[in-house]
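Annex B. Sample input.
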Amino acid sequence: MSIDLNFALLMIDDHINIVKNPWIRFYDSGEATIRIDVIKKLQPYCKNKYPDTKIIFELQTNGYFSKDIACYIRDNFDKIFIF
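Annex B, continued. Sample output.
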């Protein structure tokens, strides 16, 4: 089961509006990049809605993903945790 996109957007808005230095970590009990489609919707939302806010994007992963996803991660995440 995946997080509801609208719920995630509301939680992101709350988080960014409450904390001084926001960060968002993507993780899953399995592998977060299985739902890279959702991540690819949430990150641009944050960047477009809050262009003047530095948001730290983190990813917790097992490191098992395609080269295309690896390139996306390289270009869009500040911190990566491989477990």
